[in-house]
Amino acid sequence: MSTMSDECRELLLESRRHAPLYGNRLANHLPMALLALDRLGADAATMRRFAGGYARKLLPAALPSSALDPHDVLGSAGDYSRFAAFFQDRIREAGPEAVLHDWVPVLMPGVAASAFHGLIRLAYAIEGGLEDEIALSLAYWASEYAPLPLSLAPSEGTLEQIAGHLRGKVADHVFKPGIIIDKMLEIAWDPALAGAVVQPAAAPSLREIAGFGLDAYRRREDFTLLHVVTGCHAFRIVQRYASDQALARRYLWQAVLAAWLTVTAGQAGRAEAGADGPEAGEEEIAARAILSSDDHVIKLCYSALCEYREYGNPAYLRIAARKLAL
């Protein structure tokens, strides 16, 4: 686990007074954005200014309550505070590494939780190394746990071929109003996908899944696809705690595919393609992202820089530069 600045640590401790969701079940990005800002090199005044502005829309966290083991009640959003107490107790007893090794495999089938935000918040918490934030992130993921009813059976074809075939099956799907995770679950439950094969013969590599998400977002500036990019970055950090990493990647691919289908199927499939962003270097992207008041801009730029350093694909820099330009 990594460390964080003293100012970021203090702000994260203060952020515990906020609930993990606000508005219409929207994710509280404050802990994630603060850690991203810290990693991007923001100074104390910048982080505190961002936190003060962002916190105005957040809801107060529920009062502490008795601990509840989430095993038998995963996805019970109303039990978040009890799950938090459980994970705080377990981390005090066994330490964060042991708890992560125990619980990431349990939660991985529901990696779609809150449109990848359970996974993303946990990844940032692991990077920061703050035990209480790890506990709250695990509680958040457990409370929003969302398994998808898609087959894990393997078949032939690349990720792109499988995705294209399934897109044809749901070409006439008309979505109900809802947020990203609602639409992911809705498309996964479409009768046209019942029993459909969505997995390649060999478990896809994370590079392949991340590349699929990057290409999709590069072609279309879309809010859902942005979360695919940041979700794949988060998975790279969390995956070491999965007991079966190949199986974990299959769960990730299910979620990425469902998210992609919500953008490309039905009416959404008529969205215009995006264009490549302007050229920009790592230092410029970081410097401009720090100045943004948009949590999604900050997080995307941070993920893009991390993924560029991991894979060396300059398209990550281009999507960050495009987002900053927008």
Explain this structure.
The protein is an all-alpha fold. The chain contains 15 helices and four strands. The radius of gyration is 19 Å and the shape is globular. The protein has helices at 6-15, 30-40, 44-54, 80-94, 96-107, 117-128, 131-143, 159-169, 180-188, 206-219, 223-238, 245-264, 282-290, 295-311, 315-325; strands spanning 21-22, 26-27, 154-155, 199-200.
Task: Indicate the topology.
Blueprint: H1 6-15, E1 21-22, E2 26-27, H2 30-40, H3 44-54, H4 80-94, H5 96-107, H6 117-128, H7 131-143, E3 154-155, H8 159-169, H9 180-188, E4 199-200, H10 206-219, H11 223-238, H12 245-264, H13 282-290, H14 295-311, H15 315-325
Parallel strand pairs: 3-4
Antiparallel strand pairs: 1-2
Terminal-residue CA separation: 34 Å
Low-confidence stretches: none
What is the rounded Rg? 19 Å
Proportion of residues in β-strands: under 5%
Shape: globular
Number of helices: 15
Brief overview, please?
The chain is mainly α. It has helices at 6-15, 30-40, 44-54, 80-94, 96-107, 117-128, 131-143, 159-169, 180-188, 206-219, 223-238, 245-264, 282-290, 295-311, 315-325; strands spanning 21-22, 26-27, 154-155, 199-200. The strands form two sheets. A two-stranded antiparallel sheet has the order 1-2. A two-stranded parallel sheet has the order 3-4.
